[in-house]
Amino acid sequence: MINTANGMMSSTASSSAANNNAQSPGLKTYFKTPEGRYKLQYEKAHPSGLLHYPHGKTVTQVTLAHLKDKPAPTTPTAPSSSFSTSSGVRSAAARLLGASNGSRLSFVGGNGVSKSVSASSRVGSLVASSSSNSTSTSNFDGKGSYLIFNVGDAIYISDLNTQDKDPIKSIHFSNSNPVCHAFDQDAKDGHDLVIGLNSGDVYSVSLRQQLQDVGKKLVGAQHYNKDGSVSISRCTSVAWVPGGDGSFVVAHADGNLYVYEKSKDGAGDTSFPVIKDQAQFSVAHARYSKSNPIARWHICLGSINSIAFSTDGAYLATVGRDGYLRVFDYLKEQLICGGKSYYGAQLCCAWSMDGKYILAGGEDDLVQVWSMEDRKVVAWGEGHNSWVSGVAFDSYWSSPNSEGIGETVMYRFGSVGQDTQLLLWDLEMDEIVVPLRRCPPGGSPTYSTGSQSSHWDNALPVGTLQPAPSMRDVLKISPLVAHRVHTEPLSGVLFTQESVLTVCREGNIKIWMRPGVSESQSSNGETVLSPSLKEKPLLSSKVASTNLKQ
């Protein structure tokens, strides 16, 4: 959940964003919706002086991470001379910020260029006091909200709560480029960040530990699929299993998906039997209890482009090069349903918070709305002029006429594409007209155990993949808003309680503040959150990686 105390934005950021946008002719710094104006507050990007593409160009993906309070230590604090967590961070802060009695401190940024910042400003959660040259007042525990994004051969980490455009941390990879990553919001301890590389290698690390270290390499990492021991195919998407106690899945370009447990190392036997039929879904389990990965799912021929879990972790959705959206019962390891795009590959997918609908987008320029209850496409969004590269439901938006009803009567979702546009959509339940169908003998609407969605058990056999429907048989909806937000093709969209985030494939991120966020300044000079915005659980903290036109 968004921590509003750490999610406040500096009011001076909007003027900075406007200045940056002035360099992009034709781009407005706001867009209007029926509930008000969304305003560009500030931008995040990789260091402008450093671009690494030694292993080929990659598409930027963004993950939103919220670090909670660090658990209280169970042992007495070590002396300052020892390299405990706190003293190590203080030493790191001293090396990073330098010792100074003045009101400004200099430090070396991620691009190697010396910068000057106010001693009272915050770099991540590192706080340096200007009243003393001692760094013993630093109280870093990593608490806060961060954006994790990949550009070239590096992972960058930016503090969402500051207007600083440059990241506070960079992690470089020498052998391959990072292409996908995911943060485990529910991790109680240990590793909470998983990173997939173009080479197929996978790493899991502690985000807090990376922030505490001043180096530019991963620290305390667990390495999986080392030297292609499991798969030599590139990673395409990663996701933590909700409520999975440290389990995560990694999708690859060869159509396979592997299930890992972070409690096990990546050594030992990692072999799986040969896939007998490449065109059929199949699951194989590891031969030994200590093996990691613990299972291989063969999903499809060709690349799996994106994966997403339902909020309760009961279902897993995948989209791929073959154009199919597939939905699996994760615990039963069973294909439930799926359908084909109107044309071409599917590139991205996302679940609604209640698990009733799935969004998918791809090369047919359409946003597909799939109903879990009806196991079919119930709406197509028409409005993009090129491939749809990112989709997401806005779980923080409430329909004006849904107060007190207890059920969703309208969904708000967003999509971005290679046409550089952000589109916002409203889907009203009254608009979705499902043709009446005769209930087969013994068939009735039933609820699967542990599922939030209902379906007709006998309407279609379980595991049926449907062909693309006819255009005339599907409801067409138009976007509520269509706004050109970047000059480069977009790769993802993300909703937070206070804002909408858009990212282009070159690594530039824009934060658009909601109209419900007050522009008035509080006593500490930061904007305050309007009480009209309800707190809701974070639906997704990841913007899915996609394959884009070259």
Question: What layout of secondary structure does this protein have?
Answer:
Blueprint: H1 13-21, E1 30-33, E2 36-44, E3 62-67, H2 85-97, E4 104-108, E5 114-118, E6 122-123, E7 126-127, E8 144-151, E9 154-159, E10 169-172, E11 178-183, E12 193-197, E13 202-205, H3 207-212, E14 222-224, E15 235-240, E16 247-252, E17 256-261, E18 282-285, E19 295-298, E20 304-309, E21 315-320, E22 324-329, E23 334-340, E24 346-351, E25 357-362, E26 366-371, E27 376-382, E28 388-393, E29 410-417, E30 421-428, E31 445-447, E32 454-456, E33 464-466, E34 475-477, E35 481-484, E36 490-495, E37 499-504, E38 509-513
Parallel strand pairs: 23-33, 27-34
Antiparallel strand pairs: 1-2, 2-38, 3-8, 4-5, 6-7, 8-9, 9-10, 11-12, 12-13, 13-14, 15-16, 16-17, 17-19, 18-19, 20-21, 21-22, 22-23, 24-25, 25-26, 26-27, 28-29, 29-30, 30-35, 31-32, 36-37, 37-38
Report what the structure shows.
The chain is 5% helix and 36% strand. The protein is mainly β and 550 residues long. Residues 1-19, 74-139, 435-458 and 520-550 have low confidence and may be disordered. Strands 1-2-38-37-36 form a 5-stranded antiparallel beta sheet. A 5-stranded antiparallel beta sheet has the order 15-16-17-19-18, with no helix packed on it. The two termini are 36 Å apart. The chain is built from 3 helices and 38 strands.
Features:
550 residues; disordered C terminus; 5% helix; globular; mainly beta; 3 helices; five-stranded antiparallel sheet
DSSP, total strands: 38
Q: Compute the separation of the termini in Å.
A: 36 Å
Which percent band covers the strand fraction?
35-45%
Number of helices: 3
Give the low-pLDDT segments.
Answer: 1-19, 74-139, 435-458, 520-550
Give the C-alpha Rg: 24 Å
Average per-residue pLDDT, rounded, comes to 78
Strand order of the largest sheet: 1-2-38-37-36
Shape: globular
Helix content bin = under 10%
The major β-sheet equals: 5 strands, antiparallel
Indicate the structural class: mainly beta
